[in-house]
Amino acid sequence: MSASNGTSTRPKAPHVPPPGIWAPAITFFDPETDSLDLAAQSKYYAYLSKHLTGLVILGTNAETFLLTQSERAALLKCAREAVGPDHPIMAGVSGHSTKQVLEFIGDAVDAGADYALLLPCAYFGKATTNRVIESFYAEVAEKSPLPIVIYNFPGVCNGIDLDSDIIATLAQRHKNIVGVKLTCGSVAKIARLGAVLPKEEFSVFGGQSDFLLGGLASGSAGCVAAFANVFPKSISKIYRLYQEGKGEEALKLHQKAALAERVCKAGIASTKFAAGLTSAKSAGIEDAERLLAPRKPYEPVAEGAKEGVRKTMAEMMKIEDSL
């Protein structure tokens, strides 16, 4: 898993992911050929990188489990080329076996990623005991050249929900485990992890932006949020306002964003359609709605629902445009 010549001269990233707002970038497909549109993808990555702390490439919202291994590698390579050598990239490397994961990590190293985001192995839900989870993360952490960020998302892992004790134990035993993304939505886990793991050694990220302020108040490093695809400037502003001590102003914007974020709760099709109305357009991508249909066999947003998305996001679209 040695880095290629193209990445070996890059400056070394901090061992722990920097705090702030990260987006799990969505994926552009040509629906006629069912292939990646890397030209559109490059524009999109470049645009997001101007407004966000870092990018997650191959997260859930990239439809990663619908991609081939070569497509995964192509997206990582495209991202590094689009954002330059210094912008932080966290690569999704999740798979169903340890061997799969280590191969994905190898591709991420070759492409110049800085961190690896990893779901628990959970294909066989009843067989995924704490002992299995601990041995899985231990072996990956030992063998990975990249620092590991645990990804807790019960909704895509057969209901496997890592509690704060097992996350803390893994981090304390393995110095190469440096963070967690909590898409479970538990602010209490943020507080408990912050109580036992120093920020200099471990970053705790919320997995959705609608509890960003609650997470920050409880000790989070920020969030990795699908909604940052849609309103990257606005979500980043909420974070900055909080860091500047402007809590009331941050809360006012946060509440408006949380109402608009309801569209993302409907699933990947709505998230991609919403991004096509905002950030993809700002990135200069033509025909974004067509290129942002979910990959087959999943269906795009129904025509009758599109107006509802526009209305729900109308106020936030004006705010985003003003920033």
Automatic annotation (TrEMBL):
Any one GO MF annotation of this record: 4-hydroxy-tetrahydrodipicolinate synthase activity
Leader peptide range in chain numbering: none
InterPro entries, alphabetized: Aldolase_TIM (IPR013785), DapA-like (IPR002220)
Pfam families xref list: DHDPS
Full protein name: Putative 4-hydroxy-2-oxoglutarate aldolase, mitochondrial
Gene source species: Cryoendolithus antarcticus
